[in-house]
Amino acid sequence: MSDLATRNTEGDIGRLSRRDFIKLGAAVGAAAGTLSLGSRRLMAMEQELGGDDISAVTGAQRQSVPYTCLACNIEDGGVAFVENGRIVKLEGNMDHPNTRGKLCAKGNSGFLHVYDPDRIMTPLLRTGKRGEGKWKRISYDEATSLLAKKLREVIDRAQSEGDEAILNEIVFKWGRNRTGGAVHRFMHALGSNTMINHTNICESSKKVGLEPSWGPDIESCDWANTKYIINFGSNVLETAYFMNPNAQRLVDGVVGNKAKLVSFDVRLSNTSGFADEAYFPYPGTDGVIALAMAHVIMNEGLYDAAFIRDWTNVTAEQLIAHLKPYTPEFAEQESTVPARDIRRIAREFATTKPATTFSYRGPAKHVYGAYQEAAIHMLNVITGNVEKKGGYCLPRGMDWPQPQPEPPKGKTASLLAAPPLYPLASHHVSTHVPYMIMKGEAKVSVWMHLYDNPVYTYPSSHVWAHLFKDEALLPFVVSFSPYMSETTELADLIIPDVTYLERHDPESMPSGLYPCLSIRQPVVKPLGGTQEFRQTLIDVIKKVDPDGSLGIQQYFAFNSVEDWMRAHFDAIPGLKDEGGWDLMKRKGVWPIYGQVDKTTAKLVDKNGNEVEPEYGLYKKPVPAADLEGAEVGEDGTIRKDGKAIGVRIGDQSYVGFGTPSRRIELYKQSFKDYGFNPLPVYKRLPSRDKRSDELVLTTFKVNVHTQSRTASIKYLAELYHKNPVWINPKTAAARGIADGDLIRVTSDVGHIVTRAHITEGIHPDVVAVSTACGHSAYGRLSQLKQKEAAEEWAQGGDPDITHNVWWDDKGVHPNPIIRLSVDPIGGSQGWYDTLVRVNKAEPGDHYGDVETSVEVSIKDYEQTLRLAYTGDLHRINHKEVDIDWDHLPQPALHAGGH
Amino acid sequence: MQTHHQTATQSSRPVASDETIEERAALSGLYKLIARCLEEELDRETLRLLRGALREPLSAAGWTLDADFFATAEDTLLEVLAEEYTGLLVAPGCVNPHASVFETGALFREPCDRAAAAYREAGFDYRRRLSGEFPDHIGTLLGFLGHLAEAEAEALRRGDTEAAEQARQRYDRFLLEQLGPWAPGWCQRAARAALHPFYRQVLQFTEQLLWQALAEITDRRGLKELLAKNRREPQKLDYNADFRKASGL
Q1: Which coenzyme or cofactor does it need (chain A) (predicted)?
Q2: Interface residue B231 vs chain A (CB under 8 A)
Q3: Of B75, B78, B86, B179, which to mutate for an interface test with A (greatest number of A Cβ within 10 Å)?
């Protein structure tokens, strides 16, 4: 700034020197900061989250409609802004107590799902060979009639043969079922129990590591109020369970509350990058690190003696004895993490209060992943951090009633839904389904699937393609997908659902410490006259049982989908008084705990005081009425009508935890009954004994994609669309691989040809490939076909794709070469147990080549059954368990349905 | 859009001669026929019309349907055509027939509003018959032109020049603004993608008809502009993933 020339008349100010100018300007600037100088009329557009939104074109206020996100599974609260019947913007719902007005990148771009020209907008009936891509458009009425006819044929056959087990030939598989009980109602009405979830390719062994111990299947850390966090194998800042709310509160804790974050991951995730200390353990060794920390805590007397005594089913002495082999030095040998660091972190964790761990797929997605999760969980228990402010808390959700009458479960248990060889896997073993069908163990007549794409998302995914192409094994396949996924393109009939922004669902996700209900409602009318899944179910049942003679129409006697939702919400105590369903439509969430303070981002009441979550849930007293007629056992368990309802400790009766003893059961009798170790142990995996030329293949999610469903979203595809193999520089150099080189990654199942991304941010014995790339279906953007065959594919006339797609790489999907390998306890797929050889590509290799073998995958299936509780390897791996091995329980179907 | 409107020639004022009436009625008929062929799958009645009464006139107009079209059994042909229609214009990966998708890359955008507004102005409401249909579907847009041409012819027949002029203006504007910038080029691309000769021929015929109709109401400069717009080709990047380095995520 040069000196300012000003008018030099009497009374006017004179020449302003640069020094004075700066001084004055700085003073004004400072004052403006505190006194809000400047125009009071001008303000940034769309400044306040959850506030009004104004059309930049017309100046009119946009309609705002609350909803619950389903871009992924976190179910964040959202608000859609609608102008002229179109969604113009999505943002977070400030009334949602756990997501506090924020959506992630996937959530913000979710409206592109609605208007995607590659969306399936009408029912399609296959006309060519299965998978050939030939279809005929039909109406929803024709489509639901056809499905009803196929279902009725099965029902009639079951009746004529007097065999209700035939009803289990009606199969429903989902990847994401957020229908609030609609699918179960539908299947139970049809009399089938063959409902197959996706959980064993997700975190089922985490759930099974936790459920027998304290009841629920996940923890809810009080990140914001903690002082010390140990993260095992979760990338919580980007993707893990409850990513958005957890990431917010993790940052609150680390930045706002000066908490220390220690992260263990085989890869430098963004969470590890954010940590105070990051360690790169060998895959599958998180459990031994946790056990070694427990060893230090117990042996150095750093444990919470009172909590262990009062609230667990073990003694300190018992734990010390059990943990004896797990010295930090042993853990170092197994994990490659230095013993001194394990010892130090254990001491810090035990002496810094409050503290918590968090874990996700890293430890759980291995054979014996349930042990690893149980070991991590134990750290919180022995240090007394459970249900403390800033500690390791129980998840908080709310229930809602189902409309009455409800259909009873099917009368015959389903083999496919719950394989008997996995009695502890409460979330079942969906990976085994194609193998069981191919081996003739179960028959299928009608296969329906919703939000599910196993031909892409499962390990050895080619096996699922093999199954779906076989019309003898799956005679009639129905997809409810609004997108032509790799699995949907192998259907016989597509009855497209709408997107999550156009349909109704009840929700309650324990995504934070404030329990709440939320809803999904159409923020705009279903586009182009499409029909939501819930209406399709009503229509199908009415056609299966047109005159009510089967007795199942009564379960779907809703005049409209909204009536169905009213039946969920209008009778809930508290909510009913505030308006029931009508309130939910206006607010999207209930209860309203307060508002988000704009400075601290904490929930505050009308006086500005923080609304604290409730802690110590297990210490709530058993209601006096419940105690009447109850009995207290020798161990203090309070039972009534044969059911444990609480625990007596001293002279107090507490509700306790959701276990048979109402205490935390670190010792799991159910594990022992099947020959597994009742206490958390470390089992050295075959991948730990790999050959020197082998590497462990791991996969990971990225922050802008789900596993499968977001590849067609333009904003997200532009951000992330290729997935080269992360490989350590030393590892790469030993193989003569340079950054960007074409490489061949080979497992026993087959190989893929992809590219190398050389980075220090990965363990030298590991390679990592992200999911979400390398689609062969899911719309033209995800396939990038316009580049390969412009004449045929670019004709659709999407200028965004034809002109704005600057990338030419859709990535390569790793799942085909990942071997089937299942945790015999929790049922989880061992995603991170596949060994591969990585070399420079061979002559003739092309980027994207995939070669696999169904036969080898079938051998993998047989091999993994040897680990199940009836298998020979189970005994070999559990010699320490004191049990009569010759009298293990016989494999049995779950009685009474699922 | 407005620039095109201004290039429309002033020669489109309707003249109440028998020749004009005949011409507008014929134009209406053609639009209605191709609208019927493109808006939904061919039905039995239309198929019979094409194979019967219209066979010769169509052939004379240069739209010669191939021998298979006449030889194939009716039910079989209807099934084959329905499958081709779905693959070409309905299912994911199709040549999306909606103006919104062509112009913006998304379903149900402003071109949809503009089409619906034009229908309302002319006294029509839009009601879809099957899910996934929108007012800016090429078949519906063409059908609307047919209605406008018919309205003009009828007005001329009854000597209502004011109504005829209004219908003509609506026709010119709609053709020029809602179809002119993209529809002929879209027809050409869709014809290339069609696997069945019937749809290839319908689309080629539609393209010709549209250019002819546009040439009647647009001066040379305007036509040139429209040609350029209709030539909007997708960028054809070479698919060679090998050249790009993997790093720099």
Answers
A1: Mo-bis(molybdopterin guanine dinucleotide)
A2: no
A3: B86
CA distance to A630, A652, A656, A661, per residue, from A624 (Å): 10, 12, 15, 19
**A173 shares a domain with A317:** no
Q: Which domain holds residue A372?
A: 204-393
The total of structural domains in chain A comes to 4
pLDDT at B246 over 70: no
Residue A446 belongs to some domain of the structure? yes
Query: What's the pLDDT at B104?
Result: 83
Q: Are B93 and A118 a contacting pair at CB < 8 A?
A: yes
- In CATH, what number is assigned to the domain containing residue A782? 2.40.40.20
Do A570 and A469 reside in the same domain of the chain? yes
Nearest to A428 by CA among A91, A894, A863: A894
Q: How confident is the model at residue A30 (pLDDT cuts 50, 70, 90)?
A: low
Q: How far is CA A794 from CA A84, A633, B104, B206, B237, in A?
A: 30, 73, 14, 20, 11
A186 with A270, same domain: the answer is no
pLDDT digits (tens, 9 = 90+) for A763-788: 999 999 999 999 998 887 777 654 44
Report pLDDT digits (tens) over B95-144.
889 999 888 888 999 999 999 999 999 999 999 999 999 999 999 999 99
Interface residue B130 vs chain A (CB under 8 A): yes
Do residues A331 and A458 both lie within one domain? no
Domain-located, residue A889: no
Does residue A98 sit within a domain? Answer: no
Dump pLDDT digits (tens) for A666-719. Answer: 999 999 999 999 999 999 999 999 999 999 999 999 999 998 889 888 889 889
The alpha carbon of B34 is separated from its chain's Cα centroid by a whole number of angstroms, namely 7
Identify whether residues A625 and A578 lie together within a single domain.
no
Q: ipTM for the complex? A: 0.89
Q: What whole-number distance in Å separates Cα of residue B96 and Cα of residue B101?
A: 7
Q: Which residues of A touch B245 (CB under 8 A)?
A: 739-740, 755
Q: How many CB pairs under 8 A join A and B?
A: 177
Peptide bond into A405 cis (omega under 30): yes
- Shortest distance between the Cα of A117 and any Cα of chain B, in A, equals 6
Residues 50-69 of B with CB under 8 A from A: none
**B119 contact A CB<8A:** no
Least CB–CB distance from B96: residue in A124, A128, A797: A797
Please, what is the average pLDDT of chain A?
A: 92
- Determine the distance in angstroms separating the CA of A803 from the nearest CA of chain B, rounded to an integer: 6
Q: Is residue B241 part of a domain?
A: no
Go through chain B and tell me how many residues it has.
Answer: 249
Claim to verify: residue A243 and residue A160 sit in the same structural domain: no
How many domains are contained in chain B?
Answer: 1
| Domain assignment present for B145 | yes
The structure tokens listed for A327 are: 């010295």
Residues in chain A: 898
Cross-chain CB nearest to A528 (options B91, B108, B109)? B108
Say yes or no: A351 and A438 in one domain. Answer: no
When pLDDT is averaged across residues A6-17 and rounded to a whole number, the result is 49
Q: 10 Å Cβ neighbour count for A365?
A: 30
- Model confidence pLDDT, tens digit, residues A541-600: 999 999 999 999 999 999 999 999 999 999 899 999 999 999 999 999 999 999 999 888
Taking each helix axis from N to C terminus, what angle separates A533-544 and A561-569, rounded to the nearest 10 degrees?
Answer: 100
Domain that includes residue B227, residue range? 10-232
Q: What percent of chain A has pLDDT over 70?
A: 92
How far is the C-alpha of A814 from the C-alpha of A793, rounded, in Å?
A: 25
> pLDDT: is A802 or A403 the higher one?
A403
Residue A17 lies in a domain: no
**3-state secondary structure string, A116-134?**
CCCECCCCEEECCCCCCCC
Q: Same structural domain for residues A137 and A245?
A: no
**Nearest-CB residue to A135 (from B83, B107, B234):** B83
CB-CB neighbors (< 8 A) of B238 in chain A: 787, 808
Q: Pick the residue from chain B with its C-alpha nearest to A846.
A: B242
Neighboring chain B residues of A780 at a CB cutoff of 8 Å: 92-93
Q: Which of B96, B104, B133 sits opposite A796 (nearest CB)?
A: B96
